[in-house]
Design goal:
28% of the residues lie in helices and 22% in strands. The model has no long low-confidence stretch (mean pLDDT 95). It is built from 14 helices and 22 strands. The chain is globular and about 65 Å long. It has helices at residues 22-28, 35-40, 46-56, 81-97, 120-132, 150-155, 170-185, 212-225, 257-273, 285-294, 320-327, 341-350, 425-428, 449-452; strands at residues 2-8, 11-12, 31-32, 62-68, 75-76, 103-108, 137-142, 158-161, 191-197, 231-235, 248-254, 301-304, 334-339, 355-360, 371-381, 384-386, 396-398, 402-407, 410-415, 439-442, 459-461, 499-501. The protein has 503 residues and is an alpha/beta fold.
Length: 503
């Protein structure tokens, strides 16, 4: 069996002012050929899981490594159309040059948007279907926050998405995609159906560790365990993606079409019914600072700055929290981080151990808060760190040049780029130990919780500025039909009726 593998990941925030250029993208993410195996084999990544499933299958597989344009842990603004065009051009060329292939395995995000396309993943799968023909199997793994279009379902054989949030099952999701594709190759009559739900909820208000969404996942797993279906994914579309036909979705895969349809509608109705339970409980920045001042537990207070989360595609350059810390002359150790390339350059010019007046913030999104104050350059770094996980555990991340600048009792990690902001190593690797600080600003939605709850219970969702705002009604959706969507419309009479079947 000849199988082609490729990968393209980007979670787009339509409200970010930054356009991700092709030139910058390929500097960070452009890999072809066997280097892809070297990068992912036996690593906590979907491609690692795919490769393991192929090994475990007993099928004689010839793996062709195509193109990997994944930006690790990176979300951001709308991507240059050329990124999508090049990926499709290269991957379809691999198909033609190695024809005939029997299967195509893709690791995709599912919520990418380019300057010329609202549905890049659908466009990729459609182009590969046209190039490979109707008899070639196409399977893709995706993020739980993906936008899964009808175009995707109609051209793919297998789609699997993460079951966990925070995401810790990338490897397992890739394994599922490859395993199901191989089962279909061996003749198992697997069918795939999707139900669409016109609902968006903030990513910070649900988790698969506890709460209603976790219970729904457990219910769906029981449907698999009871052999009603072979696989499922419950998609909560990332809420900062402004596309014309968006929404959450449920995908079910199985042999019995009636059971697939019944379970799919059941899961979709249960997801829709929990919408009222998925509402944020936020405090103001000053309220969280007050909690930190009164804290005697020895645990750090975590101020969750979700709206400026680079993981959610926000610009990551708001100094709103820092400005309040400085305004109140907070006399407990505090820490925050941001992307600010000019400030990094200045810190390297100033040098370790020296002081200067620094202006920090709002270099990407000028509508955000900036600060200007005298800072002391504590340390300078190349920006490399290794994730402690559980997500991406052991994988090396690159922030570009990085500096730690101290303002009074506040340490600011300033980098050319921010990835995996919810992993404590983004602080620890550069000399900021979160457990030794009274107040720590975490620019993430939910991904940080599994690591941070190991050493603190004092975690507070905070109403902050940024393009990943928790209050979705703050954002200026222009393409999405808000009148037919939760939370803009109550949907009391909505029926799950829009079902899309695979080929």
């Amino acid at each position: 069996m000849k199988i082609l593998i490729g990968s393209l990941h980007h979670e787009t925030n339509s409200f970010s002012p930054e356009i991700i250029s092709y030139e910058n993208w390929v500097k960070e993410a452009y890999r072809e050929g066997s280097v892809i195996k070297e990068l992912y084999y036996q690593k906590p990544h979907a491609i690692g899981g795919m490769l393991q499933a192929l090994e475990d299958s007993g099928v004689d597989c010839q793996v062709l490594y195509g193109l990997d344009m994944t930006r690790y842990g990176a979300s951001g603004g709308v991507a240059d159309q050329r990124i999508l065009d090049v990926f499709i051009e290269k991957m379809t060329a691999y198909v033609r040059e190695n024809s005939p292939v029997d299967g195509i395995l893709l690791s995709l995000h599912g919520a990418m948007q380019t300057t010329g396309c609202d549905d890049p993943e659908g466009a990729i799968i459609q182009a590969l279907r046209e190039a490979a023909g109707e008899n070639v199997l196409i399977a893709a793994s995706t993020d739980l926050h993906g936008y899964i279009s009808d175009l995707t379902i109609e051209n793919a054989d297998i789609i699997t998405g993460y079951h966990t949030y925070p995401h810790v099952d990338q490897y397992e999701t890739g394994y599922r995609a490859a395993k199901l594709m191989l089962q279909k190759y061996k003749g198992q009559p697997l069918h795939m159906v999707k139900a669409r739900i016109p609902m968006l909820v903030p990513a910070s208000v649900y988790s698969t560790n506890a709460g209603p969404f976790a219970k729904l996942q457990e219910y769906a797993k029981k449907c698999v365990a009871d052999n009603m279906i072979s696989d499922y994914t419950i998609y909560q579309m990332q809420p900062w993606l402004d596309v014309e036909v968006g929404g959450s979705a449920v995908i079910v895969i199985g042999e019995d079409t009636e059971k697939c349809e019944s379970v799919c509608v059941d899961l979709a109705e249960r997801l829709l019914d929990m919408r009222h339970a998925l509402k944020p409980d936020q405090k103001s920045i000053d309220e969280v600072i007050d909690i930190a001042l009164e804290n005697t537990t020895g645990q750090p207070v975590i101020i969750v700055d979700c709206a400026d989360s680079p993981n959610a595609g926000a610009s990551g350059d708001s100094m709103e929290v820092a400005s309040r810390i400085l305004a109140r002359d907070l006399q407990i150790p505090s820490a925050t981080l941001l992307i600010d390339r000019p400030a990094v350059a200045k810190a390297f010019e100033v040098g370790v151990g020296n002081k200067a007046i620094f202006k920090l913030g709002a270099t990407i999104d000028p509508t955000l808060t900036a600060i200007e104050a005298e800072g002391y350059v504590r340390s300078l770094h190349t920006g490399e760190f290794r994730c402690e996980g559980p997500a991406y555990r052991g994988m090396v991340q690159q922030l570009g040049r990085t500096a730690v600048i101290r303002f009074g009792k506040m340490d600011v990690l300033v980098a050319e780029n921010i990835v995996c902001p919810g992993d404590p190593q983004i602080y620890r690797a550069f000399g900021i130990e979160p457990t030794l600080y009274g107040l720590v600003d975490v620019k993430a939605c939910t991904s940080f919780r599994m690591a941070y709850t190991k050493f603190t219970d004092l975690i507070y969702e905070t109403d902050t500025q940024g393009s990943a705002a928790v209050n979705l009604k703050r954002l200026d959706f222009k393409r999405l039909d808000k009148e037919g969507f939760w939370p803009w419309n109550e949907l009391n009479d909505y029926q799950i009726h829009q079902l899309t079947w695979s080929r």
